[in-house]
Amino acid sequence: MGVVTFTMDDVQYSANEGDTILKVARDNGVHIPTLCFLEGLSPVGACRLCLVEIEGSPKLFPACTTKPAEGMIVRTQTERLKKYRKMIVELLASEGNHQCAVCVVNGHCELQDLAYEVGLDHVRFPYLYPAKTLDASHKEFVIDRNRCVLCTRCVRVCHEVEGAHVWDIANRGINCEIIADMNTPWGESDLCTSCGKCVRVCPVGALLEKGATVGELKKERGFVKVIVTARSKHEWITVEDHEEE
Amino acid sequence: MKPRVATVWLGGCSGCHMSFLDLDERLIELADKMELVYSPIADIKEFPHNVDVTLVEGAITNSENEEYAHIIRKRSKFIVAFGDCATTGNVTAMRNRFTPDEILKRSYIELAEKNPQIPNDYTTLAQLLKKARPLHEVIKVDAWLHGCPPTADQIWFAMTSLLEGKIPVLPPAYLRYG
Amino acid sequence: MTIEDLHELAEKERQRQAQYKYRILYCSSAGCVSSGCEAARTALKQALEEHGVAKQCELVGTGCLGMCGEGPLVLVHNDQTLYQRVDATIARKIVEEHILKGNIVREHTIDLNDPFFAEQKKIVLENMGKINAESIEEYIAADGYSALVKVLSGMTPEDVISEIRRSNLRGRGGAGYPTGLKWDIVRKSPSDQKYVVCNADEGDPGAFMDRSVLEGDPHRVLEGMAIAGYAVGANQGYIYVRAEYPLAIERLRLAIKQAERLGILGNRILESNFNFHIDIRIGAGAFVCGEETALIRSIMGRRGRPRPRPPFPSEKGLWDKPTVINNVETFANVPPIIRNGASWFTSIGTQKSPGTKVFALAGKVKRTGLIEVPMGISLRKVVFDIGGGTPDGSTFKAVQTGGPSGGCIPEQHLDLPVDYESLQSVGSIMGSGGMIVMDNTSDMVDVAKFFMEFCMDESCGKCIPCRVGTKHIYMMLDKIVKEEGTEEDFALLQELCVMVKETSLCGLGQSAPNPVLSTIRFFREEYTKKLQPTSCYEGNASTITETNGEQK
Ligand SMILES: Cc1cc2nc3c(=O)[nH]c(=O)nc-3n(C[C@H](O)[C@H](O)[C@H](O)COP(=O)(O)O)c2cc1C
Ligand code: SF4
Ligand code: SF4
Ligand code: SF4
Ligand code: FES
């Protein structure tokens, strides 16, 4: 496997061919904010929080899907990037119905963490207050679409790791929603194995365990990496088709 | 002259004001540095002119809140959105998926124990706005103090900073929702 | 069928056509279908039969004749007389006067020397008004498939690519990427399987260039695709066309069947070793499915959502195989380039943008319809000569190119040549060919709002800037239109537009703010005059202005 050398925030790094900028950054303790990315799942480059600048291009590139090339000069913390990241979090906050004070993951929420990281003191865009639904038909879990940030981690973990493909995205644009099966109540899903993987990968309080109360739900997300690594070594079953959404 | 400070309670649960009282003995220290010209905890009828700093708790949820917000804006030099409801709408805004009619019906008819009746004397009563909104969607706000409620330490940090004539930029530890 | 057989077929067809005294072509494209060409056709047929001249005249449906606003259009081919708004009565008159007595019915004709026609240059649309849209024989008789013959009888794939590269043909789907270069990448990508995809999604509101080509001259597109397949080493092509185009789909199906029957598509094409199959895939009409990576996913039966590029489809496309994806009009340019050579093509248009471009001219001009103009023609010529200018009593304000991804160009830039770079330099784009003229009755903020509503509705919702950003931009525009917006809203609007443009995942989000930014650039006062003051402190401003720390 070849190695490429590139510069990130004025420091030189070498990367294995095929590694993404994000992987190199994480391996070396450089922090780049992410939301849709989760190690072990296919990257989709959707949330745009990990965008970085690459010298010589006016475009911005998602670190989670972009591979460094020899001699590339990458910047991860410019004023422009910081401003855009803050705006992305603002947009997300305005999109859902986030009442952290009464939320099960209050204090353990990736959206809150992002808001603090970008210094979000208020949201300049009017809150949209969408009329989203909550589905508590499953015997163990609940999906509260009011808090969903549409990262599609649940869709991917269910398809790629559990192999059940319960979750999918319905509608377009601002009306997008996560649905079970062909838009049936989750509890009636023929495909759901009740493994709970989606609940654990959900960055926010949209997927939750029944019975959890305010601030109680802490999620452990490292398991995806463990499973996927094990599988790729054929320790468990083989991964046939590792793909997004 | 000491800075003239006001606190206002709009569409919120008064928790933020309670948290203010949690400053305990630090309240006395504050009292030395400022003049409290208006507050729900003091009995003053009209919102005064020439206020240096006003803390506003709660979302803008009814017609009275809205009118008041504009008065406060006219008469205050610096306005702080005080707590999550004023900053994000928070719990007050949880009603926003319903229409005011649905809410009134639910509260005054369906859940009434006796005399189910929707109040309709709007000469004295405030009318629910279509949606509860954070303060800055209605008037210009100068700083935000989050938390549901903000902790006494956060309030202390913000107040001391303001009384020194500085806009408080909350350190990460004080930047918290919920 | 061998190449000789094909030549023979062409000759026979020419003879067949020559035996008629008159060839009467009526436009059978969707525009004239809706204005009633079927009634005109029936009336013409009846009249021809009644007067016993049906045998001497051939009545055929042809492709779009351009002046869709004046349809149904009927062309008497022999003396190039074009009739407009042909209803049953006029149809009868045409037969009784023109066909029987040779007297042209002047009061219903359109002058073909009118600048609307004279300023045009037809390459892609050359067969419109010439051939029967449903006849492969007529296509072949008009030199159709001769480019494929040329390619198969002596050109190597490298020759084909170098010819296309030298022609400097650029993608007509909007971005203007050099087609030859794209093909070369696919050719050089090692793979056991490659694909050719024709993008006929045409999602821009009001655009119908590709539809007209498919309806009027479907074989031209098949031929272009087959040549691409030969050049890059693909044996399978797909045409992705929206379900809203039933006539185009029907004609394509027919065309594919005809070509397969003659051995022009399928295995061992024209008895060479080249195999190429074409299948149709029907899309549900989502604008975003015109974006190449979304389109590819849609062909694969998945949800049409774009993915970050690179990798580009030329490396990883359909089922991760190297894939050529080009627009309908791009493919339609290929046969004439091969037939006439690259230097012929580069002699038309400008150096950087050779050839022609088809536009759907609409809005406040006297003559609307489908036009094909040489690149480099000035916008003024298009609007005022071809389009005849704005209707009497109104004045020109702006011309919008590029649809929801483009911008509005004001009077002062009307002398700009129509080419990729010039349009970009004023904040618009060539786009796929929508061109809307606006006059002084248009409110530019409202125009921007219209396009933003389209983008908001069509956003796939995958990435945050476009999904939520377009919604907020739309709401801010709505607020400003209603004269409820403030200075702060206006500043935030501009900040958000730039952010959405720079951070969105695909071209939809990246270009969605263009109509807003370009109207702000050229018609700023239309925004500012609608803004409201914000309420503030009644006395002197606060003395608290410095912060106690650094703002993030
Ligand atoms: C939102 C969006 C919609 C698009 N729609 C079309 C379309 O309808 N037709 C088309 O040919 N290209 C469309 N494109 C451009 C394609 O992605 C692609 O660039 C094009 O098909 C390449 O062909 P060309 O090189 O021949 O232009 C669209 C792009 C975007 C971002
Ligand atoms: S999901 Fe996170 S941001 Fe949303 S309400 Fe819960 S804690 Fe707050
Ligand atoms: S439910 Fe959770 S994991 Fe699924 S898309 Fe929404 S936020 Fe992401
Ligand atoms: S820019 Fe819009 S259409 Fe494109 S991926 Fe993002 S949300 Fe989807
Ligand atoms: S983490 Fe890279 S785009 Fe979301």
Molecular structure report:
- Chain A is α+β, with helices and mostly antiparallel strands and 245 residues long.
- Chain A is built from 6 helices and 10 strands; from the N terminus they run E-E-H-E-E-E-H-H-E-E-H-E-E-H-E-H.
- The longest helix of chain A is centred in the middle third of the chain and has 17 residues, at 79-95.
- The radius of gyration of chain A is 19 Å and the shape is globular.
- With 178 residues, chain B is α/β, with parallel strands linked by helices.
- Chain B has a single domain (4-95, 129-174), classed as 3-Layer(aba) Sandwich (Rossmann fold), CATH 3.40.50.
- Chain B contains 6 helices and 8 strands; from the N terminus they run E-H-H-E-E-E-H-E-H-H-E-E-H-E.
- Chain B has helices at 15-21, 26-33, 63-75, 84-88, 100-110, 152-163; strands spanning 4-9, 35-38, 51-57, 60-62, 76-82, 128-133, 143-145, 166-167.
- In chain B, the strands form 2 sheets. Chain B has a 5-stranded parallel sheet with strand order 2-1-3-5-7. A two-stranded antiparallel ribbon of chain B has the order 4-6.
- By secondary structure, chain C is of the alpha/beta class.
- Chain C folds into 4 domains: 3-118, Glutaredoxin, CATH 3.40.30; 143-346, NADH-ubiquinone oxidoreductase 51kDa subunit (Rossmann fold, 3-Layer(aba) Sandwich), CATH 3.40.50.11540; 356-439, Ubiquitin-like (UB roll) (Roll), CATH 3.10.20.600; 444-551, de novo design (two linked rop proteins) (Up-down Bundle).
- Chain C has 22 helices and 15 strands.
- Chain C has helices at residues 3-18, 30-35, 37-50, 88-101, 115-118, 136-141, 146-152, 157-167, 179-188, 209-216, 218-232, 246-261, 292-299, 328-340, 342-346, 379-386, 420-425, 444-458, 464-481, 487-503, 507-511, 514-528, and strands at residues 22-27, 57-62, 74-76, 81-83, 109-110, 195-200, 236-242, 277-283, 323-327, 356-363, 369-374, 396-401, 407-410, 434-439, 546-547.
- Chain C has a 5-stranded mixed sheet with strand order 2-1-3-4-5, with helices on one face. In chain C, strands 11-10-14-12-13 form a 5-stranded mixed sheet. Chain C has a 4-stranded parallel sheet with strand order 8-7-6-9, sandwiched between helices.
- In chain C, strand 3 (74-76) and strand 4 form a beta hairpin.
- In chain C, helix 7 crosses helix 14 (328-340), helix 8 (157-167) crosses helix 11 and helix 11 crosses helix 14.
- Chain C is globular.
- The chains are: A alpha+beta (245), B alpha/beta (178), C alpha/beta (552).
- Chains in contact: A-B, A-C, B-C.
- Chain A binds chain C through residues 44-48, 51, 59-62, 65-66, 80, 82-84, 86-88, 91-92, 94-95, 118-119, 124-126, 128, 150, 168-169, 171-176, 244-245, and chain C through 286, 288, 302-303, 305, 307-308, 456-472, 475, 492, 495-496, 499, 502-505, 551-552.
- Flavin mononucleotide is lined by residues 171-175, 177, 199, 201-203, 287-288, 290-292, 325-327, 330, 432, 506-508 of chain C.
- The site of one iron/sulfur cluster has 12 residues of chain A, from helix 3.
